[in-house]
Amino acid sequence: GGIDIWVNNAGADIITGGNRQRAFWERLDQILAVDVRGTVYCCTLVGDHMAQSGQGVILNLGWDRAWIDGMAGETAALFALGKASVMGYTKSLARSLAPEVRVNCLAPGFVRTAWGETASDDWQQRVSRETPLGRWGDPDDVARAAVFLASDDAAYITGQILYVNGGLVM
Question: What is the pTM of this model?
Fold first, then answer.
């Protein structure tokens, strides 16, 4: 009948394959359309529905480096712009939809995604060296955090950003 939990996990791929070679403005448009506008659009539709039903949980996906310490480079800057927007929007939306709907954000660090699988040996070593837990994250690490935030165990948590990044701190 209704929507109880919604996860905005979409993200524009601007780093693999031919996407990295696309023009700066084209990649910016893609980040804004998918990461920012897509998240806002879905949150508006789902959030209104949840608020009217009197309950719900929305989880958005950010990026730890968007607010921790950033990363150099054009691609990282674009990705940080999109994900920092989502993170800030999450906090405002949580206040707007409370108390009926809880809205939180997961901010993963380096997770072994398609890019992580093909990253150079230098990147493999760098991530292990810079992450206090000494390893790449696994998609299941993020999934378990999402399950927690969507559960009744997190009933008093809204408007928060949960960093799932092996211990990097702000």
Answer: 0.91
